[in-house]
Design brief:
- Helix 6 packs antiparallel against helix 7, helix 8 runs parallel beside helix 10 and helix 9 crosses helix 10.
- The chain is built from 10 helices and no strands.
- The radius of gyration is 20 Å and the shape is elongated.
- The chain is mostly helical and about 160 residues long.
- The longest helix has 15 residues.
Length: about 160
């Protein structure tokens, strides 16, 4: 006996009471059942057919390169329609982040970049958060050079390591 698979999903409207993560899981399950790659280019092309209202308007406001890449599209979708509480927690997590003693510089950089991208944080704030959370030995070297951008600070930190 085969388990029952729901082969259709509800439209996503962008209402506050809609659960973005659950909807995305159902969308990806739908793709799998229909034999599409859940993160492939077909997913990006099929995605807008399940949007309505505010969500559909938001989708058509995106740049083509975001709409064409499901990884970027999914991140943008989550950011746009996730609850305020979740974004608040991400922002708090980013502000409290400190590079761990055994944490590699690259892992720390990746953490900062991922959260900053999700939250659409500007370069100046990203620079401040990054420098503030560096281990003291690296932070001293970076701050002595007064970097003007996040990427300049990253480069200085990488040369210190």
């Amino acid at each position: 006996m085969f388990p029952y698979y729901r082969t259709n999903i509800d439209y996503f409207y962008g209402y506050e009471n809609e659960n973005v993560k659950n909807w995305l899981i159902r969308f990806q399950n739908f793709l799998i059942v229909k034999a599409f790659e859940p993160h492939g280019c077909e997913a990006a092309r099929i995605f807008p057919f399940f949007l309505r209202g505010v969500a559909q308007t938001w989708y058509y406001s995106l740049a083509d390169d975001v709409r064409d890449n499901f990884f970027d599209l999914e991140k943008a979708f989550i950011f746009r329609f996730l609850s305020y509480e979740y974004r608040f927690r991400l922002r708090e997590e980013l502000g409290l982040k400190r590079q761990g003693i055994s944490e590699s510089l690259q892992d720390y950089i990746d953490f900062i970049e991922e959260r900053a991208q999700l939250l659409e944080i500007d370069d100046e704030t990203k620079l401040f958060v990054f420098a503030n959370g560096l281990r003291d030995d690296i932070k001293r070297v970076v701050l002595m050079k007064s970097p003007k951008s996040f990427y300049e600070a990253v480069s200085l930190a990488q040369h210190k390591v």
